[in-house]
């Protein structure tokens, strides 16, 4: 209703203003849970990084993408890992009968680009396959390498722009960082989470680069 009696109007205003006044009186208390959560996540990333073995990189000899994703691994009649990631990360994604995305909108956190076509989108391995190979995956079984390359649980797969993915290549954090500094904290945390789960080691320069990126996290 548009018109209210005066007494009812006053009562409604009292109910509305009371919680607002209370919230304004304690802005710091309201912000503490989010800040504490961010601080705890950063502290956890630092602890995990400290637990990673530091070693020299292994030889790239013997590496190929097929060692992680053999051609025989393609699943007929089901969505591929790429298609699942595009559907997960995109907005208003429409797929055809074969599960391939034909329409959608994707955001690339590396460079801040919004992409309106799937042909401009890549699914990036946060820890590149070649880099993982030199960090210990060379010694894994074929099954474990395949699980790593298609991991939808850990923050290993991410939709990014094709140009950002090409610029990154197989480099580690000591040789490449996202163009957007605002993404450095998330990138470093994701990198560390993946390496910790799969017990991949880091180099000294890599560890220093990760620590520098973690300094951009809000505390």
Please characterize this protein's 3D structure.
- By secondary structure, the chain is of the alpha+beta class.
- Helix content is 46%, strand content 12%.
- It is built from 8 helices and 5 strands, in the order αααββββααβααα.
- It has helices spanning 6-25, 27-51, 81-89, 129-134, 142-149, 162-168, 184-198, 204-214; strands spanning 91-95, 101-108, 113-115, 121-125, 157-161.
- The strands form 2 sheets. The protein has a 3-stranded antiparallel sheet, covered by helices on one side.
- Helix 2 packs across helix 7 (184-198), helix 2 runs antiparallel to helix 8 (204-214) and helix 7 (184-198) packs across helix 8 (204-214).
- The longest helix is centred in the N-terminal third of the chain and has 25 residues, at 27-51.
- It starts with 5 loop residues before the first helix and ends in a 5-residue tail after the last helix.
- Residues 1-35 have low confidence and may be disordered.
Short account of what is shown:
This protein is α+β, with helices and mostly antiparallel strands and 219 residues long.
